[in-house]
């Protein structure tokens, strides 16, 4: 599965192995982690809601686009669903290719597109006891990719 | 015509429901959202909101057919 959603911890090592290829000299891995703060708030944990039927379909399209556009050999993305604690891997992207340049570009493309196109929502639970849905439009305006990463 | 409308994340909390059947005269996805905003006062239009019809992402100006299932997505925030 090129794009998948997981309710349990992502096995980064297994994912890396799945894109291994003797013709590839480069592996680029991006891990998005749960961070303990955001916009002045102390984050306690994070909750991801995923609409799987469409997220999986659109996620697979993003991977296909990256492979075609950058000519990399293998690419995959795994996104978590449910309640996550600080430090957990929320999203993983692995790309392998003969050379590093296209692998970096494809990895960046996949994570950027994942953030704006997939029906995935993030609710932050703060130390203060308040919870709030994260609005990525807001993040973009703040000039940084929110929630990570 | 009849349309099934589903809400996610913030929109689900604003409307207090996962989905509902709507009987209306028909029109675009954007027009349907407007009607639902009038019904549910707390449902607010968001510039970055997305819409899907029958599990395919689509444009807000797409005209709905009888029996379509519409999904209203608040601004997404994966990653």
Explain what the structure shows.
The complex is a heterodimer of chains A (149) and B (79). Chain A has 149 residues and is of the alpha+beta class. Chain A has one domain (3-141): Aldehyde Oxidoreductase, domain 3 (Alpha-Beta Complex), CATH 3.90.1170. Chain A has four helices and nine strands; from the N terminus they run E-H-E-E-E-H-E-E-E-H-E-E-H. Chain A has helices at residues 12-18, 52-70, 100-117, 136-141; strands at 3-6, 26-33, 37-38, 41-50, 74-80, 82-85, 89-97, 120-126, 131-133. In chain A, the strands form two sheets. In chain A, strands 3, 4, 6, 8 and 9 form a five-stranded antiparallel beta sheet that branches. A four-stranded mixed beta sheet of chain A has the order 1-5-7-2, sandwiched between helices. In chain A, helix 2 (52-70) runs antiparallel to helix 3 (100-117). The longest helix of chain A has 19 residues, at 52-70. With 79 residues, chain B is an alpha+beta fold. Chain B has one domain (2-73): Ubiquitin-like (UB roll). In chain B, 23% of the residues lie in helices and 29% in strands. Chain B starts with a strand and ends in a 6-residue tail after the last strand. Classes of the chains: A alpha+beta (149), B alpha+beta (79).
Helix content of chain A: 25-40%
Q: Quick one: which chains have the greatest interface?
A: A-B, 35 and 20 residues
Relative strand content of chain A: 35-45%
Strands of chain B, count: 5
Strand order of the largest sheet of chain B: 2-1-5-3-4
CATH topology of chain A: Aldehyde Oxidoreductase, domain 3
Tally the helices of chain B.
2
The succession of helices and strands of chain B, N to C, reads EHEHEEE
Query: What profile does the largest beta sheet of chain B have?
Result: 5 strands, mixed
């Amino acid at each position: 599965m090129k794009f998948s959603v997981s309710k349990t911890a992502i096995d980064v090592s297994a994912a890396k192995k799945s894109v291994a290829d003797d013709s590839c000299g480069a592996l680029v891995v991006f891990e998005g982690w749960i961070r303990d703060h955001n916009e002045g708030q102390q984050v306690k944990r994070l909750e991801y809601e995923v609409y799987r039927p469409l997220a999986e379909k659109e996620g697979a399209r993003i991977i296909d686009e990256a492979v075609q556009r950058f000519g990399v050999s293998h690419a995959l993305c795994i996104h978590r669903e449910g309640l996550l604690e600080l430090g957990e891997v929320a999203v993983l992207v692995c790309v392998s290719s003969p050379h590093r340049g296209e692998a970096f570009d494809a990895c960046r493309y996949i994570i950027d597109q994942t953030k704006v196109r997939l029906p995935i929502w993030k609710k932050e639970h703060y130390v203060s006891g308040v919870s709030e849905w994260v609005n990525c439009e807001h993040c973009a305006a703040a000039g940084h990719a929110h929630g990570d990463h | 015509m009849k349309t099934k409308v589903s809400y996610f994340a913030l929109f689900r909390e604003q409307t207090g429901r996962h989905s509902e059947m709507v009987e209306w005269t028909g029109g675009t996805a954007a027009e349907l959202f407007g009607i639902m905003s009038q019904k549910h006062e707390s449902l607010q239009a968001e510039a970055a909101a997305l819409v899907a019809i029958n599990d395919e992402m689509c444009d807000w100006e797409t005209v709905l057919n009888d029996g379509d299932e519409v999904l209203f997505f608040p601004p997404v925030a994966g990653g």
